[in-house]
Amino acid sequence: MRIISANLNGIRSAASKGFFDWLATTSADVVCVQELKAQLPDLSELMRNPHGYHGFFHPAEKKGYSGVGIYSRIAPDAVVEGLGIADIDAEGRYLRADFGKLSVISLYLPSGSSSEERQQIKFAFMERFMPHLKRLREEGREIVLCGDWNIAHKEIDLKNWKGNLKNSGFLPEERAWLTDVFGLGWVDVWRSLYLEHPGYTWWSNRGQAYAKDVGWRIDYQIATPGVAATARSAAIYKDVKFSDHAPLTVDYDFAG
Questions:
Q1: Region at 27 (left for phi over 0; alpha for psi -120 to 50; beta for the rest)
Q2: Which of 46, 70, 88, 188 has its CA 20 to 30 A from that of 130?
Q3: DSSP H or E segment with residue 225
Q4: Which residues are catalytic, by number?
Q5: What proportions of the chain, in percent to the nearest 5, are helix, strand and coil?
Q6: Could you say which of 3.20.110.20, 3.20.20.70, 3.40.50.11420, 3.60.10.10 is the CATH number of the domain covering 2-252?
Q7: Can you tell me whether residue 153 is helix, strand or coil?
Q8: What span, in angstroms and rounded, lies between the C-alpha atoms of 56 and 49?
Q9: Which pTM does this prediction carry?
Q10: Tens of pLDDT along 191-210?
Q11: CA angle in degrees (0–180, nearest 5) for 10-217-150
Q12: How far apart are alpha carbons 83 and 88 in whole angstroms?
């Protein structure tokens, strides 16, 4: 089973850069996308149901902002749009699809880098999302949470960690929160496979960050222990730049 997570930084922009052409070559079973920056009427047929995939979306109410989606080769048994928390759901940050014994979730945590106000909104999201993460673990299902978590967990997860200790995405409170997430039994799949490979998935558009690989690992597949234990390999696709993020692919030996 192959699962891909990709922050598109605009689905229309990523489409124009060949994202859906690439997707057709991946043999992915489930694809989670974030930062659609589009409403449903904005989506072409290719964006809605590319190459035979079933497409599901949770757009933000604000035009040109946020939004998440899931593509799957087989139709899910159920789809859950949003967390049931009005201000979070208005920003289109959570979409879940159930397939047999497995649930796959596309998640987009807020960024706090633009202002102190947005950082406080991020902290509020984290506080309210933690009980949901606990409830998910208590369901007893196998779950893969894919997405842009907007937090680099440890020093290995970003190139210039010393220069970012006071910046959103690497704040002590954010990193401690992610540690608490893993303390619930959730598994960081990339790091479980590759202890010493940084695995950057996002690069600033400033300077030569992408060319020099001055990156951050903020896109994750975080899973329950059962399905995480079946992960065999993972890869970050950089041959074509669809976005300021790179797609993260994980192959699991899991039959749901």
A1: left
A2: 70
A3: helix 225-228
A4: 148
A5: 30, 25, 45
A6: 3.60.10.10
A7: coil
A8: 9
A9: 0.97
A10: 999 999 999 999 998 889 99
A11: 55
A12: 7
